[in-house]
Amino acid sequence: MTSDGPVPPSGGERPAPGAPRPWAVQAGEQLRQVQQQLDATTRQSDETAGHVAEIADILGRMSPRLDDVEQAVAALGAAVEAAATGAGDAEDEALSLTPALRWSQLDREGKHAAWDALAGFVSEVLNNDYQLTRLELPDCWPVHPRAVRELAWLRTLYVSSSAVGVRPELVAEWHVRWLPAAVTNLAVAIDRRECAPGKHRVTEEERRRYDDTVNEASSAGRQPPALTIERGANRPRYFPDRFPPLRGHDPSYGARPTRVALLDSETPAPPSRPEYWWEYFLDARMADIGEDHAST
Known about the structure:
Blueprint: H1 23-84, H2 90-96, H3 108-129, H4 145-161, H5 168-189, H6 204-220, H7 274-289
Helix pairs in contact: 1-4, 2-3, 3-7, 4-5
């Protein structure tokens, strides 16, 4: 017996031509064939294991992208559903509105609905449900254009994740991913060194000049300019007592006789409420769409 299997007995005699080979020789050849097949199978198994590991790595890198695709599909489904129900009343239309895209292309009526839908989202979801503080959601968010766009995007994702049939993990993603990201981006959009609960960096002199510019634009039939300019490191600081100046000459504005109380640096920020940001909201909406005597 050798490593290749049994061999014919050594007797010096060779089998005659055409005679059947001894069984030991046949068994040895069969064993060699089995060994070769086993070796080939082992090599194929090793190659397959390598391919499986490579595929697992690719799938691991694709998983986050697949989640993004699933979310995009869910958002598209929500948009299609909203479009299919677009024949409803004005309130339903405002609730289904997602104005994060093409805000500047909306007409006056569309902007009005977008602002109102955003205010409802901030009040009902961010204020009532999540109780964001006045530091996380500064009072003056409506007069910071980037902050408005951040919240509009957050509302867009909220609407898509709240659609009927959306998978639970996509709903959870809004809670654990998009909401914290929006709060972080708000801190970038609104400089806390200049804007704090009860304070805004626009001075009363800036407000007076802005009112004059709005009146000139209205007389000339032009679009009113933006309320704030998000650049310029040396711009004047706010007056801490109040913003904006009370408008006693405009009874339709509905300003309260006093502003919200200011907070000192040691006072923990309370939850944000509509009463803290409502006057800023009215200012920003009017700057975007023009005077609105029907709304206060």
